[in-house]
């Protein structure tokens, strides 16, 4: 006899075939995305790709025109009352009463939750100490951002949505935000973050979803996306006119070697790994050639992003 299977916890977010239109214009076009619990997921995409619309649908602020959205197993519109206390939301536009005093508002929000974070410690770590009695509308843009972040996390939510949390922040505030996100992850909180900063996604995210024209067009770990289908390359300099036909013979199938300019060589292969470097250098040693300025390059997430979404500016 098998034991009864334990019901698996629902994923943090499960979106199937989401469609959202504004006045006939399709902003989200059959988007599928599953986000597991306990990880940081970065949602990337060009301006207007549909990221904010998707996130706001998960938060229950927008109703899908088609498809289904489940957040912690709940319908964000029909089961909003049950869902809201369990999620933290940082909106791009603040979503805060402009006349309210900054830290008072945070204290008030904390009191609405059963087990809030320590407000003073949060204020301190986000550098909001000097903003105590200042009205929200009088805070600088960066201070408003940090307060919105504090409001999103103060109630110790299970799942936090952060829409461009570091847009317009100075490097110190950006780092403080990253640290807070890392702490959330360490505490088992699921974080969904949209960003236009690729290094932020590489730095913070366990998984990345790239959205374009209302659909998820790629999904995986940052390292996996940089590796997948990648034409990575190895570069070195040596005397001009090396016999590259002989070099290619010792390389794995599919590898190519070219002299891009006299004495400048490029070896393309997938993957560029330590074995490839060893074969190239062993061949050079056989040929009595010193490969100078030998560099192995993997694509960055920004390069992958541009390859997938195109280099031209969208109108
Ligand atoms: N309230 C609205 N009314 C009409 N159109 C809208 C509305 N909100 C968004 N859109 C349109 O829907 C599309 C998707 O917008 P959305 O804000 O979801 O994109 P995004 O990926 O978050 O972009 P960004 O990176 O610029 O924030 C865009 O073409 C946008 O102009």
TrEMBL record:
Its main location: membrane. It holds the Pfam family ABC_tran. This is ABC-type xenobiotic transporter. GO terms for cellular component: plasma membrane. Gene3D superfamilies: P-loop containing nucleotide triphosphate hydrolases. It comes from the Bacteria. Transmembrane segments: none annotated. It comes from Kitasatospora viridis. GO terms for molecular function: ABC-type xenobiotic transporter activity; ATP binding; ATP hydrolysis activity. Belongs to the ABC transporter superfamily. Drug exporter-1 (DrugE1) (TC 3.A.1.105) family. Residues 13-238 form the ABC transporter domain. Its EC number is 7.6.2.2. InterPro entries: AAA+_ATPase, ABC_transporter-like_ATP-bd, ABC_transporter-like_CS, ABC_transporter_ATP-binding, P-loop_NTPase. GO terms for biological process: response to antibiotic. It is a peripheral membrane protein. It is found in: Cell membrane. Keywords: Antibiotic resistance, ATP-binding, Cell membrane, Membrane, Nucleotide-binding, Translocase, Transport.
